Amino acid sequence: MCIRDRYNEVINDLLVPGSTNLKITEDPRIGIQVQNLKTEQVYSFDQAILLMNYGEEQRSYRVTNVHDHSSRSHTLYRVIIESHTKNLSKGKKHKFSCLNLVDLAGSARLNEFDPKLESHGETGYINKSLFVLSNVIKK
User: How many whole angstroms separate alpha carbon 65 and alpha carbon 98?
Assistant: First the structure.
């Protein structure tokens, strides 16, 4: 399992606080990946929830005029699920699945924030990425 977010156009590893500005690369063999992203192995649902809660605590939040606890980043939780047959007489077969859970930052209007805070750039990045995503989904 790995957890990353995109805050102000920067990719951060939420399992390694301080691991920021990670780069995206494309490998012809395995596809698109984030360099130096920590992957943690979990063996139960409870372990996965604990890890997700830890990652959630690392996200960026801000108080707005509308919400007391507004996420300011888009977060991707990736779970690789491995299963195998128990019938060893027929040979062990492994199957892999990838589950991506995405939590998007909410769109915002500039007038929802305290004008003294430097949140205009942050709001612009959030709205721009939501706009691009909506165009991708429509196509």
Answer: 38
Q: What is the pTM of this model?
A: 0.74
Alpha-carbon distance 38 to 114, whole Å?
Answer: 35
Which residue do the tokens 């690369």 mark? 25
Cα separation, 139 vs 125, in Å, equals 22
Residue pLDDT, tens place only, 23-70: 989 888 878 889 999 999 999 999 999 999 999 989 877 777 666 777
Q: Which residues pair with 102 in a beta bridge?
A: 76
Exposed, middle or buried by CB within 10 Å (0-12, 13-18, 19+), for 33? middle
Q: Which of 70, 78, 24, 71 is nearest to 51 (CA)?
A: 78
Helix (H) or strand (E) holding 81: strand 74-84
Question: How many other CB atoms are there within 10 angstroms of residue 100's CB atom?
Answer: 8
Condensed to tens digits (0 to 9), the pLDDT of residues 93-136 reads: 888 888 888 888 876 655 555 555 555 677 777 777 777 777 66
